[in-house]
């Protein structure tokens, strides 16, 4: 552990992890053990990588919201504490081959994932515009950095305490039209991703979403993070967010069916698609 600091409603942690920093690509995450030796908290916590830097041989930043004993334990770490990390894990964001206009949409601390992506896109001479939102001003992460990095940065809060009152999906159509967006990248709560994807479909623009799904192991073993995703062949499968994701094409994710096994999913009990099993 190098540093931990409070950033509005969140905690930002920086760790020295040269191997992870070297292999990181935007969209990757790390799996972190919590609780220390002898803890009853046996499951790890999956945390999206916010940034990597060459400092101290390679440092990795991630941002957490305290929501239970595991994240509370992480928030209490101090300099010289050590963490057990596995990473980088998951499927990263696909990047455009040519310079295009990119809108990066973040909800709450999900915005943290987008800044490493923005760095790479800017190096590829893409235009980057941000749309960030949350319930209140203290939960909008990275507003100042978004203003520095992006051609524009549109901020929304549900209570009107920062930027425009409303949600990111409310203002996204106007941003898409203004900047002539070619692609949308998004990370945040599932409800936000659902709304952003719907806007992308309306404008016929590809949407790449990094889903926020509970991951107990982070390596594809425990099957706690499955969600229904439509494959290239049109068949819905229950896939693992940690292994096949966390980045998916938004229009392929069946957001309305998350938390269930759709009757037409491949292998579902009594499902119509089960007949496709060979």
TrEMBL record:
GO MF term (any one): 2 iron, 2 sulfur cluster binding
A Gene Ontology biological process term: pyrimidine nucleotide biosynthetic process
Keywords: 2Fe-2S, Electron transport, FAD, Flavoprotein, Iron, Iron-sulfur, Metal-binding, Transport
Residues where [2Fe-2S] cluster binds: 217, 222, 225, 242
Chain ranges passing through the membrane: none
Required cofactor(s): FAD; [2Fe-2S] cluster
PANTHER family assigned to the protein according to its UniProt record, in alphabetical order: DIHYDROOROTATE DEHYDROGENASE B (NAD(+)), ELECTRON TRANSFER SUBUNIT (PTHR43513), DIHYDROOROTATE DEHYDROGENASE B (NAD(+)), ELECTRON TRANSFER SUBUNIT-RELATED (PTHR43513:SF3)
Family classification: Belongs to the PyrK family.
Name recorded for this polypeptide: Dihydroorotate dehydrogenase electron transfer subunit
